[in-house]
Design brief:
heterodimer, A: about 80 residues, alpha+beta, 4-stranded antiparallel beta sheet, two-stranded antiparallel ribbon, 6 strands, about 20% helix, globular, B: about 400 residues, 3-stranded antiparallel beta sheet, 13 strands
Chain lengths: ~80, ~400
């Protein structure tokens, strides 16, 4: 069974670098005020989403594996 | 013939020290995507409006990897190289960038703030103890970013002089010939190979060691990619910040009222840094040239596969459609999504570090130097470097 992840962008941290919306275009969108937002809060595991989260310079994207409860991004 | 028929010569010629070329405002208005001839003799499309610039930077059909291919249109005698993060597209770009992304997050950078403050304060003390006029370029704007990135990488500061001189050569647009640029690049790479080899033998906790570990233990990048990465970190990592800091200080000195306000209200420093990044009038070119990998329409113009595209970041940052009163230096500007660090996957890796350094630098200068701080010569007598992708001050003589 495919793992299910919870994805969220903390708007107060986001500086609108545009990294996530290009690395995982279907999963993040540039919302009002130049801040990114996740297009869906719960998604099937997707390497591009993790790449986007781990590339975020502000560590504004949190990815959690809902099965295990483990936080995949940001790294500690 | 009119502007519509003849490709303009780019970068636009401006007198040293002057503001952004007036051509940008005219082009945003009349011809937002236009043909230009580059120093290499190649032609490219110049994109000048904020929204279109963002599109070029974030649409992967405008490729950096294709711009490094043999025969691709080129800006001048220097390109970052196909083995560097600046010369790659995803997924290669993502693979490399992730290797060091952790070191440049806002959280990691905050840990460097106390040490950066210590370095900045030390430089200010040196200026106070030295003769007047003092040179804020060599004595501060260049010295601080070099000390910070050299410590992060683990490169001894005593080697900074020759490394900086070589960096100037490889950053030049047309001031140095291809052979000279190639030789300079080989010299820096040879230096870095030796430094990386020393980390192989004696690992430490610096960034060069992290690159070696990613190469040797995890095979996540090739030997040439490792050297190329170190090259980008050490060159861009000090030159861009130094030129930006120099430009920021210069802009403040030219706006004494804003400078006084900032001195009295240091809590404005974070927004002032963003505004000085946006306002920087010395950007001559913009982002690294992209090459279209498919026919793509932008601003009503179809760009054909294989053609070059330049996203004029400086122009975008002065687009009145996005920024209210763009010609005004407004240190308290709240809505400021400037593109000084780019946008999309190539958004500056060191952006958070640069932000922190600029904040610390301004706080140290304004807090440490007397309020009578001013240019020691008329602005027209300042010397500027030419033939680079940005106007850069040779020196910034000040007195107090």
């Amino acid at each position: 069974m495919t793992a299910v992840w919870q994805v969220s962008v903390e708007p107060s941290r986001c500086r609108g670098s545009g990294m996530c919306t290009v690395i995982a275009p279907g999963s993040f969108t540039m919302a009002a005020a130049g801040r990114s937002a996740a297009t869906a809060p719960v998604v099937a595991a997707d390497g591009a989403i993790l790449d986007a989260a781990l590339s975020c310079p502000l560590e504004a994207i949190t990815v959690t594996d809902l099965g295990s409860g483990k936080r995949l991004a940001p790294e500690d | 013939m009119t502007i519509d028929q003849v490709p303009l010569v780019f970068p636009f010629a401006v007198p040293p020290g002057s503001d952004l070329a007036p051509e940008f405002a005219r082009l945003r208005e009349q011809r937002p995507v236009t043909r230009v001839v580059l120093p290499s003799g190649d032609t490219a499309w110049l994109v000048t409006r904020y929204q279109d610039v963002r599109t070029v930077l974030s649409d992967l059909r405008f490729s950096r990897a294709a711009a490094e291919a043999p025969g691709a249109p080129r800006m001048g005698n220097t390109r970052p190289g196909p083995d560097t993060i600046l010369g790659m597209d995803p997924p290669d770009h993502t693979r490399l960038r992730k290797l060091v992304a952790q070191a440049f997050t806002a959280r990691s950078v905050e840990r460097l703030r106390p040490r950066t403050t210590e370095l900045a304060t030390g430089l200010v003390h040196g200026l106070l103890a030295g003769p007047l006029p003092a040179d804020l370029m060599s004595g501060f704007a260049l010295a601080l970013p070099m000390k910070v990135i050299f410590e992060l990488l683990g490169v001894p500061f005593r080697d900074s002089g020759p490394l900086h001189d070589l960096t100037e050569v490889i950053f030049s647009l047309a001031a140095h010939g291809p052979d000279e640029v190639r030789a300079a690049r080989q010299d820096i790479e040879a230096y870095l190979r030796r430094a990386l080899q020393r980390r192989r033998e004696h690992p430490t906790d610096d960034l060069l060691t992290a690159l070696v570990a990613a190469r040797d233990q995890e095979d996540r990048l090739s030997e040439q990619e490792m050297v190329g990465f170190a090259l980008i970190l050490i060159t861009v990592g000090h030159m861009s910040t130094a030129n930006t800091l120099g430009a920021a200080i210069y802009s403040l000195l030219r706006h004494p009222r804003e400078l006084a306000t900032l001195r009295e209200n240091p809590e404005l420093i974070p927004s002032a840094v963003e505004e000085l990044l946006r306002y920087n009038p010395f950007t001559l070119t913009g982002a690294q040239l992209r090459v279209a990998v498919a026919d793509t329409e932008i601003g009503g113009v179809t760009i054909r596969a294989g053609e070059g595209v330049i996203a004029a970041i400086g122009s975008a940052n002065y687009d009145a459609v996005r920024f209210a009163q763009p010609d005004r230096l407004d240190l308290g500007r709240l809505d400021n999504p400037h593109l000084a660090f780019g946008f999309g996957v190539h958004h500056c890796l060191g952006a958070q570090l640069a932000r922190m350094e600029l904040q610390v630098a301004l706080a140290a200068l304004l807090g440490g130097l007397p309020a009578t701080l001013a240019l020691a010569v008329p602005p027209g007598e300042l010397a500027w470097k030419t033939g680079l992708t940005a106007q850069a001050l040779v020196s910034l003589p000040v007195a107090w």
